[in-house]
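note to self — DONT lose this again. spent like an hour looking for the file last time. sequence + predicted structure for the chain T wanted, 127 res
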Amino acid sequence: QLQLVESGGGLVQAGGSLRLSCAASGRSVSSYAMGWFRQAPGKEREFVAAVGWTGGSTYYADSVLGRFTISRDNAKNTVYLQMNSLKPEDTAVYCCACAADWRTSAPPLGPNEYAVWGQGTQVTVSS
């Protein structure tokens, strides 16, 4: 059974950087798109970034475009989210997720298209 475990969250000042990791175990995710979502207190879960199964295609929310970079290392069964120029509004619990469908032509953007989720890691950006 696939399990996803996020790490790398923490407290950082505005303008700082963090690198989140999502380690998969139980089976390979190399043929599945992977995504990052976040949820702030009192707000709905929102899409952050997604990467196709080959790593060749990536999509970002407008709010993080140019600041965040999603990548994957299929040999390590791990997905990353590099977050630069962090803002207080980036404060949230960040979760990674594995797409439900095998080898989709483009990574899905909606949470309903993801089948397995990690528990999340807290990111707090102070002003």
